[in-house]
Design brief:
heterodimer, A: alpha/beta, seven-stranded mixed beta sheet, three-stranded antiparallel beta sheet, 16 helices, 45% helix, B: mainly alpha, two-stranded antiparallel ribbon, 13 helices
């Protein structure tokens, strides 16, 4: 940064993702927030009042909308205002264990897989393996994207209000929890504190399929001890596609030097910066950095899983074509806490799916 | 006349010594008094004040009166179940912990390897509770060691942490395991200090083993038992780490505690005022229970 603009020096502070938004909240309370803050699209509604709308500032810093993936920009807007400049774009995908499919004699999934294809494959693999084929989750994106793909059910209205008791949602969630309670084809989190579950069980080789974001497209394939494949989420007859989400850089309202902050963001999201990031495994938000991303993915994975990078590209393109930014509410952290506590009761069969949804809806603020 | 003349300088010397004493006392007191004021008194007063305001982590702060306390009793508040669970945790942990630790302390005291056992039992106390909670969580998993052991005996184990009927008890086991060594060490020290001559006299008078235990040894240990009870009670009311790491309060509200409710309201929901209210209620609760214990101790604690 200092090399590119001698007037600006950026001091980097890092926090693990699990603690980041807690820390950001307490910094906002104490007035010690950094000028440039990292913001995730899901959390934006909760934090937008603390962030500066970027429109005029970024225009001054030379920002050109046409160079960006429109979905990536849209995910970080509220009421048409851009609050953060994305560094990536993520869609939710279905990862699968190629060996498990071959062993069960089930044809590999494709980008136009349907929900019933998914169910029958899961049943066959479960029967052959003797353990559940799919890894369930109550992490917002991992779970709600499957429900959205099932019948277009959405947990939050366009006006950013929580709406878990709508009828498509009840149907979709009954189906999803039924994968564990009725079909017995899915592994459920061991406790409410296991918010990431399916994707971890997948990489560990305990389940044959799981939903995960494309932010792990490289690491899931390199860490797993088996050949990994990836496709777009299986769609039901009224399936809505998949969810996208991303993170970007915003400017805190309390920042004393907003113009310099905007300049700094322009530099850290420049094309060359995005190419570097793409090489490191983050799917870039700038269109021009796309090629670098897939080349790097091929280098990292093709030796172990030949053809994986090409498959990943096709899966991400298919998913992106049908992706919708995931909208959350202003009290989303509280809701995700309730979801983990209540949904485990539905997954384990201690409570009906409808009751779990109602309980979260009623207790959310 | 002479007497007065002689006494005058003495009085000055006295006064000077007293002034010196006051200075010394102040010098010794200041560091701890300052620490107490800055780190305990001031935050406590601030917490009481915070509980009377709508105080979001950012945004406008407005006066709320007793609204935050009223909110504790609303249907969507976690406070009710949290308070109930905290009381259940306390009622389970305190008696089991005391009986176990007294028992094991006597057993260890009679062992040849008493020092080794004391060190072994104390290790969990000095291990960070978050680390032990994570390890226990792995033991409890459906494909974990405990399920495997249960399977060897042909039993179908419950999904320990996912089922509301077993989650709380599973957490209680971990808390007992974690805190066990501390009280055991206190009781071990008390056993080592039991007056040999009194016990010898009792034995000469024909007191049997059980009679010596219940009418001599245990009554002589009541100061240690009182101390351990008070500390364990206060710790149980403040349980947070183990359930937070192992179950995050779930399934449902079956393992949520008051301190977890405070933490989540403050840092997940971002409502500092609303979080301060249950903290104050917990403070009053602990204060009352401790006061009752202090007044009650005269009846059963025997200081030599």
């Amino acid at each position: 940064m200092h090399k590119q603009d001698a007037d600006i020096t950026v001091k980097l502070t890092q926090t693990p993702f699990a603690d980041y938004f807690t820390k950001l909240q307490s910094q906002l309370a104490a007035g010690t927030t950094a000028c440039i803050v990292s913001m995730q699209s899901l959390r934006l509604p909760a934090f937008k009042d603390a962030l500066e709308p970027l429109g005029p500032l970024m225009k001054k810093a030379g920002f050109d909308e046409s160079q960006w993936n429109p979905g990536a920009l849209k995910a970080l807007q509220v009421d048409g205002q851009q609050y953060a400049i994305p560094y990536g774009l993520s869609t939710m995908l279905l990862y699968y264990n190629k060996d498990a499919f071959a062993k069960a004699g089930v044809p590999a999934p494709t980008n136009d897989w349907t929900t019933s294809d998914f169910e029958s494959a899961a049943a066959k693999i479960t029967a052959v393996d003797g353990k559940p084929a799919f890894g369930q989750s109550f992490s917002d994106l991992h779970m709600f994207s499957m429900l959205f793909a099932y019948n277009g059910a959405r947990p939050v209205t366009d006006a950013a209000k929580l709406d878990l008791t709508n009828s498509p949602m009840e149907q979709a969630f009954t189906w999803y929890s039924g994968l564990a309670t009725k079909e017995k084809v899915s592994s459920i989190p061991a406790s409410s504190s296991d918010v990431p579950w399916g994707e971890q069980q997948f990489v560990a080789g305990n389940v044959a399929m799981a939903v995960d974001g494309d932010w792990n497209i490289s690491s899931d394939a390199t860490q797993a001890a088996f050949p990994v494949g990836v496709v777009a989420l299986p769609q039901g007859p009224n399936g809505g596609g998949t969810y996208s989400a991303n993170s970007g850089f915003g400017i805190a309202k309390s920042c004393q030097n907003k113009e310099a902050a905007a300049k700094a963001i322009a530099i850290i999201t420049s094309e060359s910066a995005q190419v570097e990031q793409a090489k490191a495994g983050t799917h870039p938000a700038r269109l021009a950095a796309d090629d670098a991303f897939f080349q790097a993915l091929a280098t990292a994975t093709d030796k172990k899983s030949p053809g994986y990078a090409a498959q990943a590209k096709a899966a991400m393109e298919a998913a992106s074509a049908k992706s919708v930014p995931f909208i959350s509410t202003s009290s989303w952290d509280q809701t995700t806490k309730l979801i983990a506590r209540e949904f485990i009761l539905a997954y384990s069969g201690s409570e009906s799916a409808d009751t779990a949804l109602q309980n979260v809806q009623q207790s959310s603020k | 006349m002479t007497a007065l003349a002689e006494r005058a300088p003495v009085r000055t010397r006295d006064r000077r010594r007293r002034r010196n004493d006051t200075r010394a006392a102040l010098a010794f007191l200041t560091p701890s008094a300052a620490g107490l004021t800055v780190f305990i008194l001031f935050p406590s007063v601030l917490a009481i004040a915070t509980s009377l305001f709508h105080w979001p982590t950012y945004g406008d702060i407005t006066f709320a009166g007793l609204d935050n306390y009223a909110e504790l009793f609303s249907a969507r508040s976690d406070f009710g179940p949290a308070l109930l669970n905290t009381v259940v945790f306390t009622l389970l942990i305190v008696p089991i912990n005391l009986v176990l630790t007294v028992g094991v302390a006597f057993w260890v005291a009679s062992s040849r390897f008493r020092q080794l056992y004391r060190v072994l039992f104390f290790i969990p106390v000095v291990t960070p509770s978050v680390a032990t909670a994570i390890i226990w969580k792995l033991l409890y998993q459906p494909d974990g060691v405990l399920s495997w052991v249960a399977g060897m005996f042909g039993a179908t184990p419950p999904n320990f942490l996912a089922s509301p009927s077993s989650a709380l008890l599973s957490v209680v086991v971990v808390i007992l395991w974690n805190g066990f060594g501390y009280n055991m060490l206190i009781f071990s020290a008390a056993i080592d200090q039991l007056p040999e001559d009194v016990l010898a006299a009792a034995s000469l008078d024909g007191a049997g083993r059980w009679r010596t235990m219940f009418q001599m040894k245990l009554p002589l240990m009541t100061p240690a038992i009182f101390f351990a009870t008070t500390v364990t009670l206060i710790q149980s009311f403040q349980i947070f780490n183990e359930p937070y790491v192992m179950t995050a309060g779930g399934p449902g509200t079956s393992t949520i505690t008051v301190v977890m409710n405070v933490y989540q309201t403050a840092f997940q929901s971002g409502q500092l005022g609303e979080a301060a209210a249950p903290a104050i209620v917990l403070f009053v609760l602990i204060l009352v229970v401790t006061l009752v214990q202090w007044t009650g101790q005269k009846k059963w604690v025997q200081y030599e």
